[in-house]
Amino acid sequence: MFQKALKIANEQVGSNVKDGSYVVDFYGNKEFDGLFGKATAHVRNGKVVGLEDYYNFDKKPWGERSLLAEIATRFGHDPNGAPFHVYGGMIKKRY
User: Phi then psi for 11, rounded to 5 degrees?
Assistant: First the structure.
């Protein structure tokens, strides 16, 4: 499943990009809309090698996320919960 997410991210980023971090959009993708939404893709040697997202359950204006993602965010929010990172593959060491 993660390899499929990397493939989608590679398609969005393209092959002629410098190494670095790029925002990719999974909204509207049936498999990943509820998991990533928008995520950061890390590129090395022209390929996405890692993905990360930050879950802070922040509500957005209606229409910025898909309807189901926004409803899940608003109803899944725990005011006592702590935000957290989700990441996989190779990412920049920051944590």
Answer: -65, -40
pTM: 0.74
Query: DSSP for 67-93?
Result: HHHHHHHHHH--TT---EEEEEES---
**CA R_g for the chain:** 14
Strands 47-55 and 20-25 turn out to be unpaired
Q: In which residue are the tokens 């928008």 written?
A: 38
- CA-nearest of 50, 54, 49 to 37 is 54
Residue showing tokens 């090395």: 44
Measured distance CA(21)–CA(17) in Å, rounded: 10
The answer to whether 2 and 33 have CB atoms below 8 angstroms apart is no
d(CA 8, CA 81): 30
Express each pLDDT in 58-82 by its tens digit: 888 998 887 887 888 888 777 777 8
Both tokens assigned to 91: 């990412």
